[in-house]
Design a protein that fits this description.
single chain, 2 helices, alpha+beta
């Protein structure tokens, strides 16, 4: 005797699978860095994997919530423990239900991550960080500045300065004034990796220093 199938059986959607895969990739990046500590190159490789995972998760959150979602990078040098090292994902919730971005509250979708020491992340290469961000409260009672890459509910990405946004991670050395000098303690500035996000939301990893301009 044949029994009817239970049509209410739950299943993973494609978006949920994207989020799960992103989380798994994040753990791979964290554990690979932890298992091979001490090398700036390994730290940057691990940070690239972590940030790539956040890109995947942010795109999935945008589709899952049917709302704009942002991968955010801390950009306030008054907090040196987080500056350019703390990253996370937020999504938009319109406070007045009028659909305007100006009245949108950005809610945390993750607890955020902190990159390895002396490893820093940047939006739009190493330039124009001040043009890509805003001030929000994220896992904190204080409003701080964040740069971001924004995904739309349909999975596409918002352009930065009219172009596909780039994400970069690099070795760096903190200065007394709170700024960061790109490069390791030996002055090597070639230890940089990242990704470029295409307009349709997919991204390509960039592993060559020539893919990124200098800070100047």
């Amino acid at each position: 005797m044949a029994y009817p199938r239970n049509s209410s059986r739950s299943a993973f959607t494609l978006v949920e699978l994207l989020v799960v895969l992103g989380i798994m990739a994040l753990f791979v990046g964290v554990f690979s860095t932890a298992l091979r500590p001490g090398s700036p190159t390994v730290a940057v490789e691990g940070a690239q994997a972590q940030m790539a995972s956040l890109l995947t998760q942010a795109r999935g959150v945008a589709a899952l919530k049917n709302a704009p979602a942002r991968l955010i990078i801390h950009n306030d040098n008054t907090n040196p423990d987080r500056y350019l090292r703390f990253a996370g994902i937020v999504y938009a919730e319109d406070e007045n239900d009028n659909g305007t971005i100006e009245n949108t509250e950005w809610l945390p979708a993750t607890d955020g991550i902190t990159l390895p020491k002396f490893t820093y992340a940047y939006v739009d290469d190493f330039a124009n960080m001040d043009l890509t961000g805003g001030s929000i409260e994220y896992i904190s009672n204080t409003s701080e500045d964040y740069a971001f890459i924004e995904f739309n509910p349909n999975g596409t990405v918002s352009k930065v300065n009219g172009a596909s946004p780039r994400l970069a991670v690099s070795s760096g050395q903190p200065n007394q004034d709170g700024s960061i000098t790109r490069g390791d303690e030996d002055g090597n500035v070639s230890n940089v990796r990242g990704a470029i996000v295409r307009i349709y939301g997919s991204f390509v990893l960039l592993n060559e220093p020539d893919a990124f301009p200098s800070e100047s």
